[in-house]
Design goal:
The protein has 454 residues and is of the alpha/beta class. It contains 15 helices and 17 strands. Bound molecules: N-(iminomethyl)-L-glutamic acid and fe (iii) ion. The site of fe (iii) ion (FE) has 5 residues, from loops.
């Protein structure tokens, strides 16, 4: 993005700190309150030759460049000519802080000898316990840099790889210490991800031990995640934990129905959870409850891709993965029922080792057969809604925090059509330029796509 220091025209009435002008497409992702649902998912607001005026880290105005130039003068004017400008991406589901890598386990999956997800998580318990707080912090900061350079400005992070209280609190403390990074981190306590081996046969006692951690966890985390899934805990256990977390003042998120139908989606709706995530095996009745409750469905296309879930028998031999319903049909059903849907990376070392929301968006379009407009809403305003942040981010609107991404391409569909390279040009967080991509910028210039001929 080209930076110009303006010669402020003092005849123009209102001074702002920064004007971003001449965007080929300004994709606002502005929706009715509560996010985009149903047919509204396809109504993406785009302002050609768009501009944004920013003062004190907040958006003052959004409109055409012509309009804003008439009203605002600024010391700094950034030209986004030939580029898309969008809200900063919001990643509503990651397991950011952890130790180790599980790439060896993944090669077994390629050879049709998959390990179970819960055993994989227990491996990461060990890797994480072996990592010092300093190492975990250094890795988390490096990972946040990667997320930021791929367009993420707000990111949820869960603990959950602590096999005991000391490690769980270390993970939450590391997360709390990430406040100096430009990416805004929202913390979630996920103490009850899977049952540690030493509690085998004593899941009730394990849930008691997690409930004991809640007063301390609630000082460090805004949400508590519970796992209502065959690899997690029972409805009664999740209810007990979620109610205690609520008492401790925390919001609820749910890993729901990832490996089998456990009623997780209906539970999340009934208990007033902010989100139910994964949902591969959610029943239609439970999705109806979600639509009625406003609980956000958080999709994890990275998992679908990485675990080869749409490729039966990948690697040859007998398919060994659970046969799921056809996920594009499930997502189409969510849209039809009016569920508020978001997209996330689910960044973790086992099922989805990617930090790029760009990649998650590209996979969501491909694997779930979603339109460009649907995916843009899901990765911005709807993701912000799932974190209770849609009042101040997730769309380009006056009053919201000025979190923006300038893309190297001139049309929003190109961000989803292309894959495998970073298309970010510049990231602006609370009105400040915090990341610039040193390669690839600007090659498209003013080139526009032609209407296809048949
Ligand atoms: O995909 N509890 C659930 N599932 C995690 C698995 C993480 C891992 O494999 O380490 C998830 O979100
Ligand atoms: Fe997850």
């Amino acid at each position: 993005m080209e930076t110009r220091c303006a010669d402020p025209d003092l005849s123009v009435p209102e001074a702002v700190d920064l004007l971003v002008v001449d965007a080929a497409e300004l994709v606002t992702c502005r929706t009715a309150p509560g996010g985009a649902r149903g047919a509204d998912l396809d109504r993406l607001e785009i302002i050609p030759r768009g501009a944004v005026a920013i003062r004190g880290g907040r958006i003052v105005a959004v409109g055409t460049t012509e309009e804003l130039r008439r009203t605002f003068r600024a010391d700094t004017v950034l030209s986004a000519a030939g580029r898309v400008v969008s809200p900063g991406l919001v990643d509503p589901h990651t397991h950011l802080v952890h130790g180790g890598s599980r790439h060896v386990e993944w090669e077994h999956l390629l050879a049709n000898r998959p390990r179970s997800i819960d055993d994989g998580i227990r491996t990461t318990f060990e890797h994480t316990a072996a990592a010092s707080a300093e190492l975990l912090r250094a890795r988390a900061l490096a990972d946040l840099d990667v997320a930021l350079h791929h367009g993420t400005t707000t990111l949820e992070m869960k603990s959950g790889y602590g096999r005991d209280r000391a490690v769980e609190m270390r993970l939450l403390e590391v997360a709390a210490g990430l406040r100096d990074h430009p990416v805004d981190v929202v913390s979630t306590f996920f103490g009850a991800q899977v049952l540690p081996s030493e509690f085998r046969g004593r899941s009730g006692a394990f849930i008691d031990s997690i409930i004991d951690m809640l007063p301390e966890a609630a000082t460090l985390a805004e949400y508590c995640d519970v796992c209502l899934d065959p690899i997690g805990f029972t409805l009664a256990e999740c209810t007990r934990l979620a109610e205690a977390a609520r008492e401790a003042g925390m919001g609820i998120r749910v890993h729901a129905d990832q490996t089998g139908c456990a009623g997780g989606a209906g539970f999340a709706a009934d208990i007033g959870a902010a989100s139910a995530d994964h949902l591969d095996y959610a029943s239609e009745a439970d999705l109806r409850k979600m639509a009625a409750s406003g609980c956000v469905a958080v999709l994890v296309p990275g998992v679908t891709h990485h675990l080869l879930e749409l490729i039966p028998g990948a690697g040859g031999g007998t398919p060994t993965l659970p046969v799921k319903g056809f996920l594009p049909s499930l997502v189409a059903k969510m849209v039809e029922l009016g569920v508020c849907i978001a997209v996330s990376t689910d960044y973790n070392p086992g099922t989805s080792p990617t930090l790029s929301m760009q990649t998650a968006m590209q996979l969501a379009a491909r694997l779930f057969r979603l339109s460009y407009a649907q995916v843009w809403h899901m990765a911005t305003i709807n993701a912000a809604k799932s974190l209770g942040r849609d009042h101040d981010r997730g769309s380009l609107e006056p009053g919201k925090i000025a979190d923006l991404v300038v893309w190297q391409v001139p049309e929003h569909g190109m961000v989803l059509n292309r894959f495998g390279t970073n298309l970010v040009d510049t990231v602006i967080r609370a009105g400040e330029v915090v990341a610039r991509n040193p390669v690839g910028s600007g090659a498209w210039g003013e080139e526009r796509s032609l209407t296809p001929t048949t």
